[in-house]
Amino acid sequence: MNKPTKPGDFDAPKVTTGALPASRKVYSRPARDPDLAVPHREIDLHPSANEPAVRVYDTSGPYSDPTAEIDVEKGLPRHRRDWLLARGGLEEYDGRDVKPEDNGGATGKYLAREFPVKHMPLRGLPGQMVTQYEFAKAGIITKEMVYVAERENLGRSQALENARAQIDQGNSFGADIPEFITPEFVRDEIARGRAIIPANINHAELEPQIIGRNFLVKINANIGNSAVASSIEEEVEKMVWATRWGADNVMDLSTGRNIHNTREWIIRNSPVPIGTVPIYQALEKVNGVAEDLTWEVYRDTLIEQCEQGVDYFTIHAGVRLAYIHLTAKRVCGIVSRGGSIMAKWMLAHHKESFLYDHFEDICDIMRAYDVSFSLGDGLRPGAIADANDAAQFAELETLGELTKIAWAKGCQVMIEGPGHVPMHKIKINMDKQLKACGEAPFYTLGPLVTDIAPGYDHITSGIGAAMIGWFGTSMLCYVTPKEHLGLPDRNDVKVGVITYRIAAHAADLAKGHPAAQLRDDALSRARFEFRWEDQFNLALDPETARDFHDQTLPKDAHKVAHFCSMCGPKFCSMKITAEVRDYAAGMSENERLDLEKQAAEARKGMEEKSREFLNKGGEIYIHAPKDRQT
Amino acid sequence: MNKPTKPGDFDAPKVTTGALPASRKVYSRPARDPDLAVPHREIDLHPSANEPAVRVYDTSGPYSDPTAEIDVEKGLPRHRRDWLLARGGLEEYDGRDVKPEDNGGATGKYLAREFPVKHMPLRGLPGQMVTQYEFAKAGIITKEMVYVAERENLGRSQALENARAQIDQGNSFGADIPEFITPEFVRDEIARGRAIIPANINHAELEPQIIGRNFLVKINANIGNSAVASSIEEEVEKMVWATRWGADNVMDLSTGRNIHNTREWIIRNSPVPIGTVPIYQALEKVNGVAEDLTWEVYRDTLIEQCEQGVDYFTIHAGVRLAYIHLTAKRVCGIVSRGGSIMAKWMLAHHKESFLYDHFEDICDIMRAYDVSFSLGDGLRPGAIADANDAAQFAELETLGELTKIAWAKGCQVMIEGPGHVPMHKIKINMDKQLKACGEAPFYTLGPLVTDIAPGYDHITSGIGAAMIGWFGTSMLCYVTPKEHLGLPDRNDVKVGVITYRIAAHAADLAKGHPAAQLRDDALSRARFEFRWEDQFNLALDPETARDFHDQTLPKDAHKVAHFCSMCGPKFCSMKITAEVRDYAAGMSENERLDLEKQAAEARKGMEEKSREFLNKGGEIYIHAPKDRQT
């Protein structure tokens, strides 16, 4: 209490740092561009495994690198700025002044502390290329493209030997997964609109990442303070925490006060793309009265967020006046917050949405900073009863039109999808989206396959997410156990992220991603060989795996024991399998043939007996009259 | 401490009783057989809902009926005994004496207390029909068939008005779900082998239930003490607890000592069918040495369990000597405990499995008590790498042969399935099973769609379970979060059951079960109308839903508030939807047509602009040479 305090001493958000169990951060350098350092995680195995470390995709940024110096007050290193300045076509300028309404008019002790460092924003110069889409169309490979190719390959310098076989045994529903990701492939996919690299030129702290059907399936975690609860400190840590467990993207869905300052802290400290829904902040600027929204307020909010470095915007421009009445008979009406804000505005003014009317203006703004579109599904179904209805699909068609406009304007685009959809109605969503939106990446919320399990909607939605990810969705927006009930805490965020990592990985496996099964195989070998520590360390959540094991068998000795708590020490199926291997290894070809002959004979005998019985069947009892009841 | 103790005062298992929130137990009486009282649960809604109570399927037995007298020392009422004695064809006899080895030789304080009441067992008289399959084949409708028909319909006396439409909008992959379940339909499905009613004539406490592709998807929860942990008290409560949350069936997978006494307590108190894997107990009788197993020990164990009232046996008769070497190159070998016990025996003796060789004898025993077969998949894959391999499918073909034998012998049969299977390899399992096993009900463990998430295998398997349930699996065996790591505790059992209720219900919805969506719709209406209490009460787990809500907004007032914690009081999408409804209701036909015209025109304009842009696209920049990198 007697220590002098300096400005940095208080209020500095505490974030989780340190390596994951048995893990090392490694950086690989693409041959084409060796000044790039692309991060991966390597999980070391027990020496008895006699296997190399298992390399896995790493979203956790410098926080999990014990050699990195983390200072949340300074933000992460802004390495991308050099790439961008070298590329040219950009100007540094003063930027918009922060206004009181950007923080919801918060003052004094209610105003969250400003981020201590100020950076001048960049924007594209007139007539110059800015976006990854523009460069790709022009045949140019950016550093971001090289980076994501290296990252998707986990730094491998060539395709895995069995890559073709892995792809062929999968079912990717017409996707075109390559054996090896080259920067050229990345560029081509972006130029076709089939993939995006969300990377605002003002998010210099970013470790770029690609979202598209022919790449690893990505996941998004939502964070954000609300009018009801939470602080800046919590939000920054939620971002760090979510990416530690595998969130590829984070959306800041803050409402209420301090939106601007909260977001600045998040972006300056975020290694992953940050998305927002700008209409939320615009609504705060008009005191929550939807009908008071104007294009001018919205436009100003877009520029504010572009300058801060938001990487993608959810824009509900597909919610049109003509579609609103289609939702009237729904069980759950309009459940998208952005969708209902716009519906309210349109009803109040009886005018077409200003997002739709000003769509080209929006494109011009976003292009100048390379902010990607996430075209919002404001009319997504919020109940099983409302799935795949006229309102939902009318909006999807409009999103398809808007996609083409945005592409023509040079912007990167992805499309948001539902929502609540029973299993048999999921695939049609994917098929329609691919067709209507020219294969632009689909980004879905779940979908939840039933409405009846509040408290478990990470699971109801994880089922739908795994399926739609398999069918071709490029990014899955997580749902936490608190969905529909309350705000997720730290543990909910983790459970949501792990559930969605499961869904994304299950989708990668089913699509036939050439490297997906490596981790399953490594873990299963560890399981088979009773390498308990390796099994924990290779798990998506090593802490929980270890904790669950220790609840039954807490002693350290059990972690090297050749049995587990399920069967106990006397009998173990894994032990027997080892004996089977010895047996099979010792079998001669003659013995094998002999066995097969015996089996065929026994089978023939069985079949005869079965026929015999069936012929007799029903005759051994006296038939009673039909429907007699006993 | 001074109170005198009576025999019933100590050691009596404590079980959970009482109604679920806002729920009443109701009994309906089938018109055809009004002396049967078939239980359902009715969930009362808030008066403002102006909706009748929502009736749901109820697996919880008398424990959730506040008017029932529960005395675990006496067991549940043995109402089925009257039905059976009235039906005839059975004899009461002394039964086998309990031997010390039945309880693993436990003595003194290590011997679990015997169940206080002794019942004489029943068995079929020579040449008389015993099994539901035999009666069905003979055209006879049993009381059990009437009971399950009433139960599947939730007591409705006729089909729902929109039943046909619901079925037609679903996709049941060739199943044949009727609009309304009649006893005749039940009989026909059983006679075709497409459904079973597991109902040992010595399980008189049972509330019968049907398992088949054209009925509601069922779930199974595994319990059982192990050599490492747990007691009788815990096991009885686990059964009560699991059925309270929705387990349709319970398997007692006990190993170690006291298997006989534990099982007696469970069965005498169980309203749901109890399954076992008799080889586990047989192995204990030979001190855990697999090669010491004999047909005689196994046969004696079958009779012991038949007399106690076990409703279905997992029998791994499809693991044949000729298939063992097919598992040698697997990543995880043989992971089924029963499968590996038999593999070990066959290797030790170099002989065909005694389960296969004595299959007809086993049928004769099981038929005499109407114990259903659950033909075990001893060679199921235990890793993604091993899915759908030669060993697995060779065994499945054999299970198909054995199914036909068992039918010819008059037995009811279901087939167990995997395991660890990636999503794209799930459907082939279902298709092959239907074909190989003549549409006998499939009963799968998950499948787990990835190996990399120990600690979350209720989720990895819930994804696979929902999918395979949709494709046609009749019963889903739950997996708890502790799978692969430790023994499930009370909370794990609940989480496993709820996860599998989600999977089963998602499957019912997707198959187009005519009544499945009623609960989703009721819950979604409650959600839309801010009837928080109704939303909790209609949830699969009302306690968790309420608890999660209260963590963010604990005040009682919030439970009637017309907003929720996600958006706060100022803005609410649900509120806006109410305004949309008013608007749509007030629209004239002319207004509607005018809107649609405007929309069509705007769309045309957009399309023209998009074409214009696209035609110009790429020309506004000077093309750089391909692959130039910036």
TrEMBL record, chains A, B:
Pathway: Cofactor biosynthesis; thiamine diphosphate biosynthesis. The keyword S-adenosyl-L-methionine applies. Residues 1-12, 30-45 have a biased composition (Basic and acidic residues). Zn(2+) binds at H420, H484. GO terms for cellular component: cytosol. GO terms for biological process: thiamine biosynthetic process; thiamine diphosphate biosynthetic process. The keyword Calcium does not apply. [4Fe-4S] cluster binds at C564, C567, C572. It comes from the Bacteria. Binds 1 [4Fe-4S] cluster per subunit. The cluster is coordinated with 3 cysteines and an exchangeable S-adenosyl-L-methionine. It is an enzyme of class 4 (lyase). Residues 1-69 are annotated as: Disordered. Its cofactor is [4Fe-4S] cluster. It catalyses: 5-amino-1-(5-phospho-beta-D-ribosyl)imidazole + S-adenosyl-L-methionine = 4-amino-2-methyl-5-(phosphooxymethyl)pyrimidine + CO + 5'-deoxyadenosine + formate + L-methionine + 3 H(+). PANTHER family: PHOSPHOMETHYLPYRIMIDINE SYNTHASE, CHLOROPLASTIC, THIAMINE BIOSYNTHESIS PROTEIN THIC. Homodimer. Catalyzes the synthesis of the hydroxymethylpyrimidine phosphate (HMP-P) moiety of thiamine from aminoimidazole ribotide (AIR) in a radical S-adenosyl-L-methionine (SAM)-dependent reaction. This is Phosphomethylpyrimidine synthase. It comes from Hyphomonas hirschiana VP5.
